[in-house]
Amino acid sequence: MELGHIAETVTASTSPRPVPLHATRDCRRVSALLGRIGDKWSVLIVVLLGEGPRRFNDIKRSVGGISQRMLTLTLRGLERDGLVTRTVYPTVPARVDYALTPLGHSLREAVAGLGDWALAHHSEIEAAQSKYDQKDVLF
Predict the structure, then answer these.
(1) pLDDT digit string, tens, across residues 83-137
(2) Euclidean distance between the first and final Cα of the chain, in Å?
(3) Strands across the sheet with 95-100, in order?
(4) Is the distance from CB of 88 to CB of 96 less than 8 angstroms?
(5) Is residue 45 pLDDT above 50, yes or no?
(6) Element (H, E) at 38
(7) How far apart are CA 42 and CA 59, in angstroms?
(8) For residue 40, how far is the Cα from the chain centroid?
């Protein structure tokens, strides 16, 4: 889906005109996918796995604050979406590695661009938040 198509979809959904059926389906599809890949744990794991395959405990140590259950659920979701592969090695104890798929690597590129943007504009955003918070107090 092209960015222009997303803009048309958003415009169509905010317009008083009847919304074409394809626009509503596109919004639902994009929304569901962004919900999955846009949460903080998924983003952190995708960035981490972009450096190479990792074992579960290595991911848990590197992604501070994530519980074992949340890591398991996030990795399962990323695997279900085709972004991560899970490879089990027949050793005792079993060794399990997680790695990005080609689709996962393409997501990492997009996430890296967003991260770069956030870092480049962090001070501007903080200033805007501060200005907004001061204005809000006056009312």
Answers:
(1) 999 999 999 888 999 999 999 999 999 888 888 888 899 999 999 999 998 886 6
(2) 42
(3) 54-55, 95-100, 84-89
(4) yes
(5) yes
(6) none
(7) 12
(8) 7
Beta strands in 1-139 (DSSP E): 54-55, 84-89, 95-100
> What is the tens place of the pLDDT at every residue in 26-42?
787 788 788 877 888 99
User: In Å, how far are 39, 77, 107, 108, 117 from 4, measured between CA atoms?
Assistant: 24, 28, 19, 22, 20
**Whose CA is closest to 110, among 66, 53, 61, 50?**
50
93: preceding bond cis by omega (within 30 degrees): yes
Contact 39, 83 (CB under 8 A): no
For residue 115 the two structure tokens come to 């991260």
Kindly list the structural domains of the chain, giving each domain's residue range(s) and its CATH number in brackets, ordered by start.
1-37 (no CATH), 39-138 (1.10.10.10)
Instruction: Write down how long the chain is.
Output: 139
Neighbours of 58 (CB within 10 A): 13
